[in-house]
């Protein structure tokens, strides 16, 4: 398999942190096939423990975990190993969150569902080259929906406050929130 011959470097350690157990197992197996020495964690506490005890050269961290925010793990990794390459994953692709992740020290930011190839490309991309664009980027409708959801969450799920901040009629917002997310 050509993918197994990737030039990862001498230190192949990779920390994967995600609370979606089936996704974590699949990704760990795929990354091992690509030559990484994988260690997994399913919580902020577990991720920080590994980052402190054995700081990896690479990390893939989910943003929203059951016990907190994945950015806490990114901060710990940056303190313990400033040269590590970190990709933040999330099911909630919002520009503000991506900016926060990169400011805190993430190398890249990918929206779920990201496959092992996208993740590997992001981890191994050099600073002067951009990884290739995703095969299936979010539609404009999906980006709009994600933004509305983010503002709604930031307003503690208060429809009236969210509508005011988005400069939108409250009933229009309620109809949007009642629908399923666009593809």
UniProtKB/TrEMBL annotation:
Source organism of this protein record: Donghicola eburneus
Transmembrane residue ranges: none
Response regulatory domain residues: 13-127
Pfam families, A to Z: Response_reg
Protein name, UniProt field: Photosynthetic apparatus regulatory protein RegA
Domain of life: Bacteria
CDD domains: REC_RegA-like
Gene: regA
UniProt keywords, alphabetically: Activator, DNA-binding, Phosphoprotein, Transcription, Transcription regulation, Two-component regulatory system
SUPFAM superfamilies per the UniProt record, alphabetical: CheY-like (SSF52172)
């Amino acid at each position: 398999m050509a993918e197994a011959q990737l030039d990862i470097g001498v230190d192949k350690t990779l920390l994967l942190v995600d609370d979606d157990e089936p996704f974590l197992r699949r990704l760990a197996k795929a990354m091992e096939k690509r030559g990484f020495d994988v260690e997994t964690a399913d919580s902020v506490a577990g991720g920080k423990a590994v980052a402190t005890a054995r700081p990896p050269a690479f990390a893939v961290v989910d943003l929203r975990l059951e016990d907190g925010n994945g950015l806490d793990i990114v901060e710990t990794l940056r303190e313990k190993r400033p040269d590590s390459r970190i990709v933040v994953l999330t099911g909630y692709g919002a520009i503000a969150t991506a900016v926060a992740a990169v400011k805190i020290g993430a190398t890249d930011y990918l929206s779920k569902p990201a496959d092992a190839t996208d993740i590997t490309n992001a981890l191994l991309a050099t600073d002067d080259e951009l990884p290739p664009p995703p095969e299936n980027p979010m539609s404009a409708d999906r980006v709009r929906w994600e933004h509305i959801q983010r503002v709604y969450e930031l307003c503690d799920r208060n429809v009236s406050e969210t509508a005011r901040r988005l400069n939108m009629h409250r009933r229009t917002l309620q109809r949007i929130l009642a629908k399923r997310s666009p593809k």
